[in-house]
Amino acid sequence: MAIVGTYRTDDLHRRHPLRPVLAELQRLPTVTAVQLGPLEPAALAEHLTALAGARRPSPGEAGSGAVGLESPAGPGRPLPYPRSMPSS
Length: 88
What we know:
Layout lengths: L17 H10 L13 H12 L36
């Protein structure tokens, strides 16, 4: 069995209640922590396109390369996933 949890390290201030839990978990020999950085714009566009089931714009086409660059979460960071995807 695998249990996967995610969080953004920059959202955990010094006294955040998750910090001691993470410290305890990371001491366990069966726990593996994997740190991931933000996706590059092209990888983010590919991921969002796959989620939407749409055709990915070719380079130079309107809409290519602009995905995620204006996110309020920060440059190159995606917006949080909606709880449910609207049906088309």
